[in-house]
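Continued from yesterday's entry.
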Amino acid sequence: MKEKLQSIKDEALKAIEAADAPEKLNDVRVKFLGKKGELTAVLKSMKDVAPQERPKVGQLVNETRASIEKVLEESKKKMERAIREEKMKQEVIDVTLPAKKNMVGHRHPNTIALEEVERIFVGMGYEVVEGPEVEYDLYNFEKLNIPDGHPAKDEQDTFYINKDIVLRTQTSPVQARVMEQGKLPIRMIAPGRVFRSDEVDATHSPSFHQIEGLVIDKNISFADLKGTLEVFAKELFGPETKTKFRPHHFPFTEPSAEVDVTCFKCGGKGCRFCKGSGWIEILGCGMVHPHVLEMCGIDPEEYTGFAFGVGLERIALLKYEIDDMRLLYENDIRFLKQF
């Protein structure tokens, strides 16, 4: 029995010495010390040993087990240390290398312009309201005084989901929805994305953004509209900015006007930016049509109001002197990181 145990020990030590990976050391442990290992088999054969010899044989088995476990543990630690040292050599950090740049993004020019407009109007007591981009024809056209067959529908050629549902062509439907609620007075702006089936060029896109404003209260006049837009223009383009109102037509408003501001590049003297006129057109506006008030459940004899609308991209193009609207949507990092 002593010779057999010595043979098992010698075989185990030889296997440990030949192992070149932690997995192989584990295989050695299982083969010699596991539940079905060779030392366990010796213990199971103790019933064939004479009773007086069993204590001595048991002691020899335990000594053999202890010897094998000791060498296994030493080999394991030695192997792990060698693996760790090799890994550290491979993962060494060169502290003299330049650090990696953390590329941090920033707000899009449209977002910067929108936040500026919102800041101005919120400062004047307006509420920012949003609405659905997929809208009923009823809100997008009919409640804005554009009945079926009206020529204004041709000017706002849009994308139809079906005959009753469209992708909104303006954010005015949000104003109609707010007026319907009947919570007066109203002071709101409605920014958002709108859609028209335009060809893509330097000044047009099938998807763009608008900011529309609405005020409904008692005794609101065109003078209130002019004063509001003058304050807005001065806040956005500078305190020296002047405004000019030109008569126009919008189905939603009557009377209506287009608004120009003095060129903030030349101060109104005339330059390439304003095409020599000294003025730049920025938005359309007017007094809310009485029929629109009636359709939204508001008494036009008691309440009046004004509305205005401006293209967000137009503000961004003017403010940052960008000459092609497509640059805003091409996601060219070289362009966007200038803002």
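--- second protein ---
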Amino acid sequence: MDAIILQVLNGLDKGSAYALIALGLTLIFGTLGVVNFAHGAIFMLGAFCAVTLQRILSLSYTVVDETRTDFLGNPLKVDVPYVEGWFGEATGQAIIEWSVPLAILFAIPVMLLIGFIMERGLIKHFYKRPHADQILVTFGLAIVLQELIKYFFGANPIPTPAPDAFTGSFDFGAMIGFAENAIIYPYWRMIYFVFALVIIGAVFAFLQFTTFGMVVRAGMADRETVGMLGINIDRKFTIMFGIAAAVAGLAGVMYTPINSPNYHMGMDFLVLSFVVVVVGGMGSLPGAVLAGFMLGILEAFASMNWIKDILPGIDQIIIYLVAIVILLTRPRGLMGRKGVMEE
């Protein structure tokens, strides 16, 4: 039982990332009808927002420390981060240490702006083009963004640690009545899962309970009729593209302590996220979230050693096998609208 619970936790961790990226993809496809192969790159840009803020907060100036000397007895020159000089040593160190959570505030306007520029500058020209054209141009954009990140940040992963208060693990088993040390799980992975639930809940609440969200949902169902009512639905869809970019970017920000950012991390998640969208149902937001967590849990169980001994490599293909079965038996996905992907 403890092994099962541990794999469920691992699956929820992976599923959180899949669900957040797939949610953004589905928002874009559902509102604009665009297959955005650059969405994984947006996830990557979010992660590098955290890296950028960490580097900004670590900028320093050199001072002479009279209390410390080198082996020749000369006073040492030490680098002092500007935030320590401005706010004091203790506060400055705390700000640097909490750079990943603070990067959420930094990433939101940055990712919204990136989303607006991407939609207005490129995507809008491909609304009425075939999906193949959309895939080619957005995939090309993803490669360009990937190479820009590689140029400015290098090819190696960049460690971006979580705050010290959340770097350890806690005894999840003891908390639910198991023996001590039966189920040990990292703090930050649980925080990521809770963060994903908050973001998903916020997106659904925004679409369900605000006037803007109601108009967007109406536009997703019948764009022409909403436009005839005098509503500038194109502007609202542009804002939704920015929101989708922000969701993927925040997913990338919070994922940095789990997987050190690198220039190809967007591509690593891109294909899996599209599989999640297809399994959940193209254009279905609940389907994308459900499929994300479901496939994350399946992948976690498939990675168990005794299963891999029976079926070597099953952990690498389980998601694609599920996708094949779903597409053969229910082409529109688990919660897709009737007629979508069934022609």
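The mean pLDDT is 85. DSSP finds 15 helices and four strands in the chain. Will compare against the first tomorrow.
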